[in-house]
Recover the amino acids of this structure.
């Protein structure tokens, strides 16, 4: 993922925008926090009145009258009760806000990820991406649910306590301020250091997850080559680095609280001693009640400051997590400036017009100022001088030109890495062509909207991938509105029907994950059926039959030949037997088409194809 300089303030503001969606609820939370904080401060401040106005007179009186005191205590209880209720309410509201924000963040990430180009997934480890959904989103939880309300409540408390203290006794207030100044100094010194370590910690966490994911996927290879020990050692090293980062990040943060607590204690003692001395000397109007109130208030003053400093930890961590989340959200999406779409048409008086009829044909629809233009989608494909490289410095395809008439079968053969899959990657615009043009029924594919383009291409990709779900669902993935009959027909065409029938529950058998319980060949047959059910004008089969035994292949071949009828088909195959009946065979080498022709003419030419053919048999 592209690394930008970290800008904590920007990240924080962006995060606040997410939280800002719940303004009304937040306003309620803040209101409750005010009630709760003021209730706490009022309770503490009331100690002065309680002592000086009620308790001291009672102590001095001959016949103490307790009813006034009882009333005062009842009031105090009421104030505290209101505070407790408000605290309860805002905490519950915060849970709602937090979970809604986290859900929204995850939704946004997933939606954005779906719109990212294939290239993005080439560059990023899947484990690291997963880590953004889990660990990084988790960091937001504590910040939103605790740090934000606490920061607000602390601010309110500080203001309220300051007012209360100033009202009761300004000289003692100055003493408290001095202690607080000392605390702030410590926070700055200690807290600031941990910040940059948190970013590194989240990054390491992503890396560790990436490694775990890779090793889970590759566990069979690890076992085959007996690399368990090495894998463990590498993991240990990465995990060590993570632990070290986490320790540096938390080291400073964790000593903060004890330091703060001790400064708080010091302040308590100073107030008691100094206040007592002042009261005894009768200076500054210090009363016994004032000292009592101050002891309690100064605690309420130190507490929010200690709390805020505690939260710095989680805020810094959340900002680090948020930054990684936003990096993902800022990844450039797959652009699609194609305006040409697919439409159902029929011929009316010699021209194509939109149609609802069941027997409608497909056409490319180009919107124009004087109404849309239609070109029938017949599956004619042309490459003109196409150059392409995945990276700028390394050309992969060089000057590819070819022409496929509707209904023709075009085969690509050639050594591994020659660029066969790359040709198909360009056809469905997984990647954009660097130079040259690809025309689909005469329309440059750059002008066709990607979804329309891909809907018109049935692809069996080189790496077969199935999804969790029944066989029905997996085949229907190609076209969601396919009827059961159509699904079975597609399965028959792909010659998958027989083995599906033999599965424990036939078409209802649930395939887990990536089809781990099926053989490689069975997976390929299912993915052929999945493409067949779409019934598109152009089919692309990338090594679709590479894992199928020769007998089944012959049957699949027959099925595919009927599937290919009236369609343009691109077949990529290592086995030359698969491609012998192709109309045109393109022999590729290092990104170039070096020979082309049908089977007989290529054999007669005694070139590269001839060599491959000889080698194959
Ligand atoms: N995503 C990618 N990023 C960068 N380079 C790539 C990528 N995919 C393929 N390549 C490079 O492009 C070249 C052609 O690869 P391609 O997959 O088209 O070969 P192929 O002919 O399909 O080979 P095979 O027969 O093994 O499937 C190779 O040199 C490969 O290293
Ligand atoms: Mg390939």
């Amino acid at each position: 993922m592209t690394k930008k300089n970290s800008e904590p303030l920007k990240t924080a503001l962006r995060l606040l925008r997410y939280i800002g969606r719940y303004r009304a609820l937040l306003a309620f939370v803040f209101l409750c926090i005010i009630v709760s904080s003021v209730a706490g401060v009022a309770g503490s401040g009331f100690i002065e009145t309680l002592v000086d106005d009620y308790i001291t007179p009672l102590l001095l009186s001959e016949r103490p009258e307790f009813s006034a005191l009882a009333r005062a205590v009842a009031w105090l209880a009421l104030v505290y009760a209101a505070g407790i209720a408000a605290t309860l309410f805002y905490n519950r509201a915060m849970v709602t806000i937090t979970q809604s924000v986290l859900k929204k963040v995850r939704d946004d990430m997933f939606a954005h990820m779906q719109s990212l180009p294939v290239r993005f997934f080439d560059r990023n480890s899947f484990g690291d991406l997963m880590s953004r959904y889990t660990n990084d989103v988790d960091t937001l939880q504590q910040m939103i649910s605790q740090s934000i309300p606490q920061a607000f409540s602390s601010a309110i408390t500080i203001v309220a306590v300051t007012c209360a203290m100033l009202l009761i006794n300004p000289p003692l207030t100055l003493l408290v301020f001095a202690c607080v100044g000392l605390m702030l100094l410590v926070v700055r010194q200690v807290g600031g250091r941990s910040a940059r370590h948190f970013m590194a910690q989240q990054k390491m966490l992503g890396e560790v997850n990436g490694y775990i994911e890779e090793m889970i996927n590759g566990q069979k290879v690890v076992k085959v080559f007996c690399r368990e020990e090495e894998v463990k050692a590498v993991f240990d090293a990465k995990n060590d680095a993570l632990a070290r980062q986490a320790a540096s990040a938390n080291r400073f943060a964790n000593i903060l609280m004890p330091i703060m607590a001790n400064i708080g204690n010091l302040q308590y003692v100073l107030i008691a001693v100094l206040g007592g001395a002042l009261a005894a000397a009768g200076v500054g109007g210090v009363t016994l009640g004032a000292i009592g109130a101050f002891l309690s208030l100064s605690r309420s003053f130190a507490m929010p400051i200690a709390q805020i400093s505690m939260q710095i930890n989680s805020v810094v961590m959340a900002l680090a997590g948020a930054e990684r989340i936003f990096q993902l959200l800022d990844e450039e999406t797959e652009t699609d400036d194609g305006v040409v779409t697919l439409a159902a048409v029929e011929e009316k008086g010699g021209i194509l017009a939109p149609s609802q009829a069941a027997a409608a044909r497909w056409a490319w629809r180009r919107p124009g100022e004087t109404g849309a233009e239609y070109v029938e989608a017949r599956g004619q494909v042309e490459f003109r001088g196409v150059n392409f490289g995945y990276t700028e410095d390394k050309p992969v395809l060089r000057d590819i030109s070819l022409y496929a008439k509707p209904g023709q079968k075009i085969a690509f053969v050639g050594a591994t890495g020659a660029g066969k899959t790359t040709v198909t990657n360009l056809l469905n615009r997984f990647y954009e062509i660097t130079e040259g043009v690809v025309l689909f029924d005469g329309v440059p594919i750059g002008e066709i909207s990607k979804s329309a383009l891909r809907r018109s291409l049935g692809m069996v990709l080189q790496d077969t991938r199935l999804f969790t779900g029944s066989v029905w669902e997996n085949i229907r993935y190609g076209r969601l509105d396919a009827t059961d009959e159509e699904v079975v027909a597609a399965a028959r065409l792909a010659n998958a029907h027989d083995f599906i029938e033999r599965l424990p529950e036939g078409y209802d058998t649930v395939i887990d994950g990536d089809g781990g319980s099926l053989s490689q060949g069975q997976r390929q047959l299912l993915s052929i059926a999945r493409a067949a059910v779409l019934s598109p004008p152009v089919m692309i089969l990338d090594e679709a039959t590479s894992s199928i035994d020769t007998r089944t292949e012959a049957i699949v071949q027959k099925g595919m030949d009927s599937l290919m009828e009236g369609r343009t088909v691109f077949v990529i195959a290592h086995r030359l037997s698969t491609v012998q009946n192709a109309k045109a065979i393109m022999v590729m080498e290092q990104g170039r088409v070096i020979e082309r022709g049908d089977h007989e003419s290529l054999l007669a030419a005694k070139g590269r194809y001839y060599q491959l053919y000889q080698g194959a048999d």
About this structure: Residues 228-281 form the longest helix (54 residues). Residues 341-376 form one domain. Residues 122, 390, 396, 416-422, 462 surround adenosine-5'-triphosphate (ligand 1) (CB under 6 Å).
